[in-house]
Design brief:
single chain; 137 residues; alpha+beta; seven-stranded antiparallel sheet; 3 helices; 9 strands; globular
Length: 137
């Protein structure tokens, strides 16, 4: 199974196994945004999507900020400090907490830039998983 807390992008549909091309409907929420693995078993992984332009309205509890800064400069003294990634993201992003969905790992590819795969720090993996689990109850 792919690692919890790692960022992935969806492969182009033409690279998916034919059976999955038929069974998974297109959904821009998932296929146009990076996703973070938050659980799963076997070849099935649970992901939440990320977005750089949240539609929060009155529902800010549905989004967890992900730091776009290098981890060495994030202020962790605040109790609601952002989810921290191993390297700077291209732009400010949020995890969409109620977007948890299971996919076959074969349709995902690691999100790598400059030879480094984006992934959450251990504390951030735990915090994000707890927030997603609480939101899905």
């Amino acid at each position: 199974m792919a690692g919890i807390g790692k960022f992935y992008r969806f492969k182009p549909r033409s690279q998916w196994p034919p059976s999955l091309q038929q069974s998974i409907p297109e959904d821009k929420l998932y296929f146009m945004h990076p996703a973070i693995i938050v659980g799963g078993t076997g070849t099935g992984v649970d992901v939440v999507t990320t977005t750089s332009s949240p539609n929060m309205g009155n529902n800010t509890a549905n989004y967890a900020p992900i730091s776009h800064q290098a981890p060495s400069i994030v202020d962790t003294s605040h109790p609601e400090f952002p989810i921290i990634v191993n390297t700077a993201l291209p732009k400010q992003s949020w995890a969409v907490l109620d977007s948890r969905r299971r996919f076959d790992v074969s349709i995902l590819q690691p999100w790598v830039e400059n030879g480094v795969q984006f992934k959450l720090g251990k504390g951030s993996r735990v915090r994000l998983t707890q927030k997603v689990d609480a939101r899905m109850k």
